[in-house]
Specification:
Elements lengths: L4 E5 L3 H12 L3 E6 L15 E3 L7 H20 L5 E2 L3 E5 L8 H11 L5 E2 L2 H7 L10 E5 L3 E3 L1 H14 L3 E4 L3 E7 L2 E7 L4 E3 L2 E4 L5 H4 L7 E12 L13 E4 L1 H4 L1 E3 L7 E6 L4 E2 L10 H14 L8 E12 L5 E4 L6 E5 L9 H12 L29
Parallel strand pairs: 1-2, 1-13, 2-9, 5-15, 13-21
Antiparallel strand pairs: 3-8, 4-8, 5-7, 6-7, 10-11, 11-12, 14-17, 14-18, 14-19, 15-16, 16-17, 20-21
Helix pairs in contact: 1-5, 1-9
Bound molecules: flavin-adenine dinucleotide (FAD).
């Protein structure tokens, strides 16, 4: 495809990875974001995101993550910085793992695919992870090929790389409207009246996407999920080798978390139904959400049940109706590409998202793109849907 002018709306992980891949293919790319960058309210902007290939019965995402994990390791070398920490991930089951359960289905499929997953009893959990109330979780497994990424750092390093390669990064620019000539899109205008000509416009505005483009709101919407950052008194008990990323009966409780950072900050969050809200509404964690968090701590990490909360955050998923992303040409508008709908599990695919988006824009075959193709709610079977992880 001959070089095109491409404007990308949103410099979160979807936007910046698309910008990089398209620039590497010779396109002229402009990346617009209300900024400052990384945007403090962007979903990608956070201390950490879980990186794991455990996906229950869904071998598509498992296989995609096998590839992404190799690329996370390559990024660590390329950026000469440990952006992805392969500390392992512990999946605790509330009862014995059994067919149909998230832990059982992930464990058996990972085993089948040759991954070194290790089944754990309560005794083994108690011995290796002393901060956990192991008796609550009689079964589970450890996946050593998993961990977490320093998500804000990742976005920062990718933005630097994008600029180095010639992406025009425009922070402080808020998309206002598309510019058309006849049936064809010719650019965008920002709220300050500046016009950016484009052959293609990629919408990578995360939770803002359905607000900016209301015709998408039947398929995707913003959902708030509570996140707690707090200080632990004895950080060594919450760091590898005594601790790692974990999910505690996650399909039923939603709770998952990360090892303590060097300053002793521990992050715990909930992947539950969340609550729908407008991305510009105040992002306040509700009292009952904090009470549920405290109740969970008391059952699973009793020694920190009363530890002081440093910061709470209501982080926004851009949930799609079936939990799969949308990365495709918008059939209602020639030249418009949607690259959004992370549905609470998109960050881990960062090293491969840009390539998928670039192939889709260039209409090149891509072995993964069909899952993210334009679809209406009626067109897809729903067994492919929901629980996709944290
Ligand atoms: C609490 C929480 C925990 C998560 N945990 C994990 C995890 O452990 N592992 C994992 O893989 N995934 C996780 N996710 C999901 C993952 O973080 C997201 O899928 C991903 O970060 C979404 O990236 P994005 O680029 O689509 O959106 P964002 O990062 O939100 O980026 C969108 C950008 O669009 C910009 N924008 C907004 N309005 C405009 C406008 N008018 N014009 C131009 N730009 C605009 C914003 O400023 C923002 O920078 C989690 C999500 C949440 C909320």
């Amino acid at each position: 495809m001959s070089p095109s002018k491409i404007v990308i709306l949103g410099a979160g992980i979807y936007g910046v990875t698309a910008a990089l891949s398209l620039r590497q293919r010779g396109h002229a790319v402009t990346l617009l974001d209300p900024g400052p960058l990384p945007h403090p309210l962007a979903t990608s902007t956070d201390l950490s995101k879980a990186i794991r290939m455990d996906y229950g019965t869904d071998e598509f995402y498992m296989a995609l993550m096998e590839l992404a994990l190799e690329r996370w390791q390559a990024w660590n070398l390329h950026f000469d910085e440990t952006l992805y920490h392969e500390d392992g991930m512990l999946f605790l089951a509330g009862t014995s793992m059994a067919p149909g359960g998230f832990e059982y289905e992930s464990y058996t499929r990972l085993q089948k695919r040759g991954h070194p997953v290790e089944r754990l009893t309560s005794d083994r959990v108690r011995a290796q992870f002393p901060a956990l109330a192991a008796h609550r979780y009689p079964d589970g497994y450890l996946n050593p090929r998993a961990g977490w990424a320093e998500s804000s750092r990742v976005v920062i390093r990718l933005l630097e790389e994008a600029q180095r390669l010639g992406v025009e990064l425009r922070a402080g620019k808020t998309f206002a409207r598309l510019l058309d000539s006849g049936s064809r899109l010719v650019g965008v205008e920002t709220t300050d009246g500046v016009r950016y000509p484009a052959d293609y416009v990629i919408v990578a505005a995360g939770a803002w996407t359905p607000t900016l483009f209301p015709h998408l709101s039947a398929w995707m919407w913003a959902v708030g999920q509570p996140v707690f950052h707090f200080q632990v008194p004895d950080p060594a008990r919450f760091r590898p080798p005594n601790f790692c990323v974990w999910g505690a009966d996650i399909a039923n409780t939603g709770w998952y978390g990360f090892p303590a950072l060097p300053d002793g900050t521990l992050k715990i969050a909930n992947h539950g139904p969340g609550r729908r809200l407008h991305p510009e509404e105040p992002r306040t964690v509700a009292l009952d959400e904090e009470e549920k968090f405290r109740a969970f701590l008391a059952t699973t990490f009793p020694e920190i049940a009363h530890a002081p909360v440093l910061r709470t955050r209501l982080c926004l998923y851009c949930d799609t109706w079936d939990g799969n992303f949308y990365i495709d040409h918008d059939p209602t508008h020639e030249g418009l590409i949607i690259c959004s709908g992370g549905s609470g599990h998109g960050f881990k695919f960062a090293p491969i998202l840009g390539e998928i988006t670039a192939d889709v824009l260039e209409r090149k075959p891509n072995p993964w793109a069909h899952k993210f193709a334009w679809r209406s709610r009626a067109a897809l079977a729903t067994e492919d849907a929901r629980f996709t992880g944290e």
